[in-house]
Amino acid sequence: MNSTAITTYYLEMNSPNELKPKLPVIDFKVMECMLKQFHYNKFMYQFVGEHWQWHDKLSWSDEQWQNYAESDQLRIFIGYYQGSPAGYYELQQQANGNVEIMYFGLGKTFIGKGLGGYLLTHAINSAWQWQDTQRVWVHTCSLDHPSALANYQARGFQVYKTEPNNGDQS
């Protein structure tokens, strides 16, 4: 059991006009995986999340991964830096025009190269382009990269709820 207090921040954007974009980065391309393959979602989740204590899906069966990743309400985008997978994000279409950035991040070796701001800009633009989107939201916590919250806010997200907990999060 982890005794460190963890704070979760919930952020939202209610209009595409709120986006404060970051310009593209040379040698960094972001592409949607149009052919859904749950193994790729699982790989990217582990590749990015191993450094940020993403544990919630590690025990999932292949069937659980497939049901999640191959849903019509989920899209995955991969960022490639100089040809290598560097990071990713997943968007989930939810009720009432909500789109959540479910997972977002870079692999550890790609942090600090200026990729995160543009990857987030791409994620936000992709979310707003999804039909009927009324709100884009995301959550982050104090276990994430120290710049995560600042990156979300720099792109135009506003905190709408802060939730402290006792550190029992897995």
Question: Concise description?
Answer:
This protein is α+β, with helices and mostly antiparallel strands and about 170 residues long. The chain has four helices and seven strands, in the order ββααβββαβαβ. Helix 1 packs across helix 2.
Calculate the terminal CA-CA distance, rounded to whole Å.
9 Å
Say what the CATH topology is.
Answer: Aminopeptidase
User: Based on helices, strands and strand pairing, what is the structural class?
Assistant: alpha+beta
* Gyration radius, in Å: 15 Å
Q: So how many helices?
A: 4
**Averaging pLDDT over every residue, what do you get?**
92
User: What percentage of amino acids are in beta strands?
Assistant: 25-35%
Overall number of domains: 1
Biggest sheet layout: 7 strands, mixed
N to C succession of SSEs: EEHHEEEHEHE
Strand order of the largest sheet: 2-3-4-5-6-1-7
Quick one: overall form? globular
The CATH class label is Alpha Beta
Helicity, as a percent range: 10-25%
CATH architecture, by name, is 3-Layer(aba) Sandwich
DSSP strand tally: 7
